[in-house]
Specification:
The protein has 124 residues and is mostly helical. 77% of the residues lie in helices and 0% in strands. The chain has 5 helices and no strands. Helix 2 packs antiparallel against helix 3. The protein starts with 14 loop residues before the first helix and ends with a helix. The relative contact order is 0.20. This is Hpt domain-containing protein. Pfam families: Hpt. InterPro entries: HPT_dom_sf, Sig_transdc_His_kin_Hpt_dom. Keywords: Phosphoprotein, Two-component regulatory system.
C-alpha cells in the first residue's frame, strides 16, 4: 500500500478502511478524497466553534450527523463514534451538550492533524 503505516495514527484511523478505499478507487483518487476530507474537517471545525459559541444545540446536532458519516467513511472510527453518540443520544442539558461538542471538537482537530500528516505520505 502506498500509504506508509508509519504515518498512520492507529488510535485515530482504521487502516483497513483506507486499504479498502484504495482498492475501490485507486491511490490517486484516494489522495484527493483524503484531502477533501481534511477540507471538510476544517469547515466542520469552524462551524462547530460557531455553534458552541452560540450554544446552538440544533446546529451542533446537524454537524454531528454529517461528521459521524464522513468520519466513518474515511476510517476515523473514534471521531465517528463520538459524533454518533452525541447525535443519537444527546445529553439532557445544554451545558452537557456543549461540553460534549468541545470534546468532539478536540478530537476533530486531532483527526484533521493526523490525516494531514498521512496525506503527505501517500505515494502517487
Amino acid at each position: 500500500m502506498p500509504i506508509s503505516e508509519q504515518f498512520i495514527d492507529k488510535s485515530i484511523t482504521e487502516l483497513n478502511v483506507l486499504i479498502q478505499l484504495e482498492k475501490d478507487v485507486g491511490i490517486s483518487v484516494l489522495a484527493r478524497l483524503v484531502n477533501l476530507f481534511i477540507d471538510e474537517l476544517v469547515t466542520m471545525a469552524n462551524q462547530l466553534d460557531t455553534a458552541i459559541n452560540n450554544a446552538d444545540i440544533i446546529k451542533i446536532r446537524e454537524i454531528m450527523h454529517v461528521l459521524k458519516n464522513s468520519a466513518a467513511l474515511y476510517g476515523a472510527a473514534p471521531l465517528a463514534a463520538l459524533a454518533t453518540q452525541l447525535h443519537d443520544s444527546p445529553p439532557p442539558t445544554t451545558e452537557e451538550n456543549l461540553h460534549a461538542a468541545l470534546v468532539i471538537k478536540h478530537n476533530l482537530d486531532k483527526t484533521r492533524d493526523a490525516y494531514q500528516i498521512m496525506s503527505k505520505s501517500i505515494a502517487i
